[in-house]
Amino acid sequence: MAAFTGKQSIVEAAIRKEHDRIGEELKRLREFFKGKKVYIFSGASYAHNMASVCHDLGLEVIGITTYHHDQNYDTKEINTVKFMTETIGNVPNYTICNKQPYQVIKFLAKLDPDFLIVRHQALTVLGYKLGIPSIMEGDSNKCVGYNGIIELGQRIQKILKTKKLYKNIASHAEFPYTDWWLDEKTDAFHFVGGL
Asked: Which helix (H) or strand (E) holds 115?
């Protein structure tokens, strides 16, 4: 937009000013998040963008489960998967889970992330029951921009300080699955494929 309107110097000055304004806090957050792992559970393009934001904060994205994947958005102009992998590299443990939450429980239990980011409030309960601090980040405009990234980082930092509470909740929670399914030896993809 700046190039189109001939205002590059004004925009570049504003970008430098914003980088300087949040620089110290971003550095502090990145130091705090060193070695911390996040798992993202939301819609496709939202998860891809959230992974980039988490990467900017210095977090390790250890997995993503998206509710769907719409190939209509894999165009030359808009390809959020491509942008994400170009920005942060390949994300391990990437799955598309259409109405199969019983699998996500297996992924989360095995990977043991430090926290979970979800787009829909009801899914935070999944993290609570597994003892994983969870944040609902539903508004796609809330965590963008300079202030948005800092505010998300501060919220994550706060929730990580309550990890003991989540472990306590998990010790009293039950899932509606059999012991066989919850056993770590049972493959999460056991029911995938032909019958």
From this structure: strand 115-118
CA distance 105 to 88: 25
* 131: DSSP letter: T
| Amino acid 99: pLDDT | 59
**Residue 52 phi, psi (nearest 5):** -65, -40
The SS3 assignment for 180 reads helix
**Joined tokens for residue 29:** 């957050």
Name residue 158's amino acid.
Answer: K
Alpha-carbon separation of residue 82 from 42, 64, 90 (angstroms): 17, 15, 10
Number of Cβ atoms within 10 Å of the Cβ of 164: 10
Contact assessment for residue 74 and residue 48, using Cβ atoms and an 8 Å cutoff: no
3-state secondary structure of 68: coil
Q: Running along the chain, 195 residues long, what does each successive block of 10 average in pLDDT?
A: 87 90 94 96 84 93 85 74 86 78 85 91 86 84 81 94 92 91 87 67
The pLDDT value given to residue 140 = 65
User: Is residue 29 a contact partner of residue 153, using CB atoms and an 8 Å limit?
Assistant: yes
pTM of the model: 0.85
Question: CA 156 to CA 112: how far, in whole Å?
Answer: 16
